[in-house]
């Protein structure tokens, strides 16, 4: 669930902390689901805040990520990255191309719906 808020404000990080503790109701008759892991995009202007937040919550599986859009990059690293600076979180490099493709194929969105051009697209029938 993307949380889109302005990161410089303390209330954003407090809201995320509350979400990490929540359990979410499933539409089927199974127990409520906890948050097992969180990935926060560390790119942009607030990298230091993301790194600090993630470092303080590594034991809760809160990970700082950075997207890389090139062929051959695995969707998620096989091993956790090494810490470069002791007080900051390691940055997990993720393949944005592979992840986008996987998400779009699972959402069953036609390929033409993701492009700007709609030439040759037909609307889905149900």
Provide the fold topology.
Layout: H1 10-21, E1 23-24, E2 33-34, E3 38-41, H2 47-56, E4 62-68, E5 91-95, H3 96-106
Parallel strand pairs: 3-4, 4-5
Antiparallel strand pairs: 1-2
**How much helical structure, as a percent, in the residues?**
25-40%
| Lateral strand order in the biggest sheet | 3-4-5
Structural class: alpha/beta
Head-to-tail CA distance between termini: 27 Å
For the sheet with most strands, the description reads: 3 strands, parallel
- Average pLDDT, rounded to a whole number, is 76
Report the β-strand fraction as a percent range: 15-25%
Q: How many strand elements?
A: 5
Which descriptor suits the 3D outline? globular
Count of helical regions? 3
* Low-pLDDT segments: 117-126
**What is the N-to-C succession of helices and strands?**
HEEEHEEH
Integer-rounded radius of gyration: 18 Å
Quick description:
With 126 residues, the chain is an alpha/beta fold.
């Amino acid at each position: 669930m993307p949380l889109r808020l302005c990161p410089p404000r303390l209330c954003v990080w407090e809201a995320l902390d509350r979400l990490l503790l929540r359990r979410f109701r499933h539409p089927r008759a199974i127990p409520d689901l906890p948050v097992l892991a969180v990935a926060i995009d560390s790119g942009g202007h607030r990298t230091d805040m993301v790194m600090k937040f993630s470092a303080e919550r590594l034991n809760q599986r809160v990970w700082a990520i950075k997207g890389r859009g090139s062929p051959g990059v695995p969707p998620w690293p096989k091993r956790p990255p090494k810490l470069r600076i002791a007080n900051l979180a390691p940055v997990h490099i993720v393949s944005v191309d592979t992840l986008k493709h996987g998400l779009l194929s699972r959402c069953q969105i036609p390929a033409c719906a993701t492009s700007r051009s709609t030439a040759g697209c037909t609307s889905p029938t149900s």
